[in-house]
Amino acid sequence: MPGSAAAQETILILGGTREAADLAKELVASKPEARIITSLAGRTKEPAPLAGEVRTGGFGGIEGLMQYLRETGVTQLIDATHPFARQISANAVEAAKQAGVPLDIRTRKPWAKQPGDSWIEVETLEQARDTIPPRARVLLALGSQHIRLFASREDVHFVVRMIDPPEEPLDLPDHALVLGRPGDTPAVETMVLIAHSITHIVCRDSGGNAAYAKIEAARELGLPVIMVGRKG
């Protein structure tokens, strides 16, 4: 009696980072017989093209993710999400355990402070907000869901960079909106900082190369970076 064919290798990447996109491209090239799926949260309206299949939207918590793993026949789960996407990462651990699917965690390492860096290290976004000095001009390098927290700082001018235009006006009393992705080089980021007369940057310690150019630019210009660590 002929044996049944082996189940297709199916890899689900929890993505949304440049590293996840690079990983998908690598796996599609190295495993042509496998099914490679990247899951995106859906916050960006027009994400950059990805190799393999793309799934957009949430899973519905641990139960929803576990059900998806089973129904799709996922044989490996890779968490390559943003280091601050704590909920989906926690869900991935539990869902993988319950579904009996191996989990590979690819969280980016924090940035290492370099000579010349002027970091003001805080634990929470609230502390970052309260640390900004009066009359500062701040590049707010955060996700759109965190912007409203800074609305109480009426004494600060914010420059907000977003990939997509906001669906509603930003709840900031004094701000400028810059649409586009972060610059790939320190030179590009330096031009942005100078053009807007930035005095401070507020960001989270997301690690990786994709958002590091602004840190290098701040170092070159001697600008303080209010850095939110991963403990908060």
Summarize the structure.
This protein is of the alpha/beta class.
Report on the structure:
It is a single chain. The protein is α/β, with parallel strands linked by helices and 232 residues long. It has 6 helices and 11 strands. Strands 6-11-10-7-8-9 form a 6-stranded parallel β-sheet. It has a 5-stranded parallel β-sheet with strand order 3-2-1-4-5, with helices on both faces. Helix 2 packs across helix 3 (86-99) and helix 5 (186-195) packs across helix 6 (213-221).
- Level-2 CATH architecture of the largest domain: 3-Layer(aba) Sandwich
In which range does the helix fraction lie?
Answer: 25-40%
Strand percent estimate: 15-25%
| Sequence stretches where pLDDT stays below 50 over 5 or more residues | 1-5
Main pleated sheet: 6 strands, parallel
Number of domains: 2
The span between the termini is 59 Å
> N-to-C SSE series?
EHEEHEHEEHEEEHEHE
The CATH topology of the largest domain is Rossmann fold
The total beta strand count reads 11
Structural class: alpha/beta
Q: Would you tell me the overall average pLDDT? A: 91
Q: What coarse outline follows from CA principal-axis ratios?
A: elongated
| CATH homologous superfamily caption of the largest domain | NAD(P)-binding Rossmann-like Domain
Please state how the strands of the largest beta sheet are arranged side by side.
6-11-10-7-8-9
List the total number of helices. 6
Give Rg in angstroms: 20 Å
